[in-house]
Design brief:
It contains nine helices and two strands. Helix 3 packs across helix 7. The chain is mainly α and 249 residues long. It has a two-stranded antiparallel sheet with strand order 1-2. It is flat, with a radius of gyration of 19 Å. 55% of the residues lie in helices and 2% in strands. The longest helix has 31 residues. It has one domain.
Length: 249
């Protein structure tokens, strides 16, 4: 049996850090809760959380559909991230989002050269990279294209065999990397939009910076991000059954 490495679920992790940091930001400015940018960030964090905990008890050996839950959620997260990037550049982009929600509504004409009457993830990516010169990995487009097969109950997807270890782990690494990228990049955008790129100061009980005058919360964020990336790359799985792990009890 293969499971996601238990080290992903340490009490100090990237998700817990971002949750605490965003809550501190909201405590300083509750207006954030009513903003569309925050709603997009919340979607991304919700997708990450759902994926994260759906893997806790998932036996990778028994996975046969290519992690369909992660596929659906990751596509949703990528689109929300591109919307957040574009909206952070220009409030007129809200018209594009309104058009996607209701095709009877017209988007601002400045986007017509790219959208040309239709709206999808590749076109939102073009707006971000061509109109706003954002440097976003093209891998997101590749992953979102593959996840299209999972937006509906598609019974024609390739079935993975019990022994397709390498294929399963490659899919899982790519999906987790995409989720980490959208979550951490969205978090940075929220700081830029609402807090002048400043990281809120937290009062974590396990803070490695005991002197309150020299707290470096941004470094803790970078450390947790790097730790998560390292686990994805170098220590993805474990053979420890989660039902035998005290964390699960």
């Amino acid at each position: 049996m293969q499971f996601l490495n238990r080290d992903f679920y340490n009490s100090n992790n990237i998700l817990g850090y971002i949750n605490s940091s965003i809550q501190a930001l909201i405590n300083m400015n509750t207006v954030i809760l009513s903003r569309k940018e925050y709603m997009l960030f919340f979607y991304i964090k919700e997708d990450f959380t759902a994926n994260y905990f759906s893997l806790y008890t998932a036996d990778i050996d028994l996975e046969c559909l290519g992690f369909s839950v992660l596929q659906r959620n990751t596509r949703h997260s990528i689109e929300a991230f591109l919307d957040l990037v574009n909206l952070s550049h220009d409030s007129d982009y809200l018209s594009v989002m309104e058009h996607c929600a209701d095709r009877n509504k017209q988007y601002n004409s400045k986007y017509h050269s790219i959208l040309r009457g239709s709206c999808n993830i590749p076109k939102k990516y073009k707006i971000a990279t061509q109109m706003y010169n954002e440097n976003i990995p093209r891998d997101l487009l590749t992953i979102s294209s593959k996840t299209n097969n999972y937006t509906h109950p598609n019974v024609f997807v390739d079935i993975l065999n019990y022994n397709d270890y390498d294929k399963k782990l490659e899919i899982l690494r790519n999906l987790l990397s995409a989720n980490l990228y959208t979550l951490t990049s969205a978090y940075k955008l929220i700081l830029k939009i609402f807090n002048n790129n400043m990281t809120p100061i937290l009062t974590c009980p396990t803070c490695p910076f005991p002197n309150p005058y020299f707290k470096n919360c941004s470094q803790c964020f970078l450390n947790e991000e790097a730790r998560f990336q390292n686990l994805i790359k170098n220590a993805l799985i474990t053979y420890t059954n989660p039902f035998q792990n005290p964390y699960y009890q």
